[in-house]
Amino acid sequence: MNIMMAIIGAVAFLVFAPLIGGLLMGCDRVFTARMQSRVGPPILQPFYDVVKLWHKEKAFSSPVETIFTTAYLVLVAFSGAMLATGGNILLVVFSLTLAHTFLILAAYSANAPFSHIGAERELISVMIMEPALILYAAGIFMVTGSFMLIDVFRMGVPVIVYIPGILLMMFSILLLRLRKSPFDISTSEHAHQELVKGVTSSLSGKNLAKVEVAHWYEAMILIALMILLFSQVYIAAVLMLLVVFFLVLIIDNVFPRVTWQTTVKRIWITTLILGVVNIVILGIFEGVLL
Amino acid sequence: MYSPDFIAILVLLLVPVCAALLLAVFKPDIIRNVLVGITSVVIIGTSLFLAWNAWLSPIYVTIENAAWMNTILFIIEIVISLIIIGLSIKYKKVLPLILAVIQFVLLSFLEYFGIDQIGGAQEFVVNNFTVVMILIIGVIGTLICVYSLGYMKDYHEHQTSVPNRKRYFFALMFLFLSAMFGIVLSNNLMWILCAWEVTTLCSFLLIGYSLTTEAVNNSFRAVWMNLIGGISFTLALYFLIGINAPINLLSVSGLLAYPDVHTLTIPLALIALAGLTKAAQFPFSTWLTGAMVAPTPVSALLHSSTMVKAGVYILVLFAPLFAETWVGIALALVGAFTFLMASALAISQSNAKKVLAYSTIANLGLITACAGIGTPGAVMAAILLIIFHAVAKALLFLCVGAVEHKTGSRDIEDMDGLIVRLPLLANMMVIGICGMYLAPFGMLVSKWAALEAFLTAPFGYVFVTLLAFGSAFTVFFWTKWLGKLFMRMNKPPAPKVTLHFSEKVPVITLGILVIGCCIAFPAMIIGLISPYLHGIYPLYTPGLFGVTSSDNYIMLGIMLFIILILCLGAFFGSKAGRKLPPYIGGRAVDNDGRFLGSLGVYKETKNANYYLEEYCGEQKLLMPSWIISLILIAAMLLLGIMGAMI
User: Fold this and answer.
1) What's the number of domains chain B is made of?
2) pLDDT tens, position by position, B534-565
3) pTM for the complete prediction?
4) Which residue of A has its CA nearest to B430?
5) Quick check: B486 and A141 CB within 8 A?
6) Considering all CA atoms of chain A, what is the largest pairwise distance in Å, rounded to the nearest integer?
7) CB count, 10 Å around CB of B578?
8) Alpha-carbon distance B550 to A9, whole Å?
9) Is B422 part of any domain?
10) Would an 8 Å CB–CB cutoff place A193 in contact with chain B?
11) Nearest CA to CA, how far is A39 from chain B (Å)?
12) Distance from chain centroid for Cα A244
């Protein structure tokens, strides 16, 4: 690994990912508003929100929330930075799981019913994501022969050619992890719904701001994982992103929230049909395809 | 005249036995404490000495004229069979009786036919894998015995109906250690079989310690399942004797060096079956979950350092042979399937010991899967799993046992706020739980190694899929337990929280060991496991595997550093800020977090975890798991008979 390149990649991710992530969220809010015949907030609204939260009074229901949310933000950012160095995909996956554990612990420690339900559901959501991420890593390994993301760029053709199912599976995971309907099981999009923001309902001020920024990072990590599959063909990657963005918008606006049971079933059936089958086909025809 | 290594081996084998005899004789607590203390120091010291020497260069000890030893071991085996037969008759248990009689007959014939075959091979071999096992048994096993001193005192204060048989208890614990040393040190399969039977007997007697109906029933379940393993092992020896080979096939080194693996498939399948029973894989899992009725040190000993590790030890030992046969693939399938199902079952349990039991079964499943695949990478993953699991699981068991005595419950639902109620135990528990599944702790590194091994194995995609879903379940049940510890932190510390000195020392030592293993794992791979792999796989090249790549170490190092800073932040960071009552749907809440009920009374909120009984309950999953695993085991035996090679 070229150390200079790795450091530049990591720093670039740490700086630009939240900017792009925040902008995407802003766009999302504007487009959603237009679809509902509203004007909507300015495109920079997510940043205004975070800045405002940052200047709020420090208040919590349990003092450990501060350290747990910090850990969440730092580790999500670290996972992303690791991804940007072209490092080991499995380490990225594991460190993401660790990061989420801290968010879940923050919600648990509040000891309030809404945040407790949010914690349980967030945990289920992390559980649903785990096999997909491991299968993603497995897919990359089967094609390139290593877990190092840098090796994806050494392939002659984009890896998507071999693992299209994995891409579609990752799309379902993106839907889940953006915590937008129909899969906003752990935190409702709006505070007036019955979940009262679930996992974040007890967080306020800086703690909430950290979770918000971490959310942008996470979205960018998932998007980066999808872009990566297109390694050399960047036009296709951009097109894919546009399609994904509008699909997410439409799905978010059209479908109501489903129960967590339905979420598990839908996402895991998707994982099995797209991810596992893809891996199995790749495994059986390895000699022919690669 | 004897080499120091040989003396060390003898010390490890005989000192626990002598200690057991003395412990069985002396009744006063003070003598017992001193005896256990001295023996522990001797065992730990000798283990370290032997491990160091063997690490410098593998030890091979040959005994001239070992026939008399065979006779002694034969007598031990016969005595064990007779004890089991006698107790089966006493408690009117038919199945254990039948199996014990079969085993008795088989052993007698084996001794009659097999006795001449012995000789010509080394009797004791201590290589790097043995070193790992010696350290696990010698250090962790002994620490558990020390812990028992304080634990059993409390145990008999809590359980007044259980007759006080501490002498019997401690004697068996040390006998157990001796038997475990016997299994890992011997190179001779006849000797391994004998030690194997001793562990069966000891676990049987220890599980039934409290003599309640449940304990007796569970102990008989343990014994008949393990007897199936014993019989299967004995039959494997019969087949090995039947093979006309120029070298001694009744030794581990002889078997590993034998070129015609295709003639070995039947004994391999039988040994695999024996390993599966000891390692409590489906469908033999119920003996381990049933063993939870025993005092906690027994569970800790059975689960983390001995008994179940004996099962996987045998499997990992023969991994190079499994790698070439279809028996190995079938064995790996049983293991991977067990990992998936046991992890799911663990979600449905709220009894902490039961969760630990299922998690043990799951991890052993993963080790079994690695052993069945048998490539160098898989064996590396298996050994790493054995190490990390032993340390973290022993720590967790000891914590749960102590917590149970301090709070009166082993239910995870009652562990809320433990981090303020029992800070030391809870912090150790957090370390243990993190050690079981979170980055950058060791278990995760082993999972990663396993994943890499699976991906390069035949039918890797099947194993990867099972691992992916299984590890998702693992994340679920560990995290919700972890969360419980951090809930309701407004409670006051428990009044009587003093731990016995003998409990505190093992718990803290194990906590340090978990963290130490996490930091030292690259050294373990490079210094300990790679040389072993080099010894058994001539073609093995260490640089091939991602787990051993230095870039990843740097990343793990950074992650560790971040965690360290966060921990420091948690302890020294500012806790200033306004503390607000939790949000409970807009109801009035007082300072303790209680809400105003409709009758004007403040009430405690109670938040329970999800257990997903309707999906992961024992009612739902056990039967299908048994059926599928039985089919897989039948397939394994059939493949063995067919002699199918890859």
Assistant:
1) 1
2) 888 887 776 545 555 677 788 888 888 999 99
3) 0.95
4) A105
5) no
6) 62
7) 10
8) 19
9) yes
10) no
11) 31
12) 13
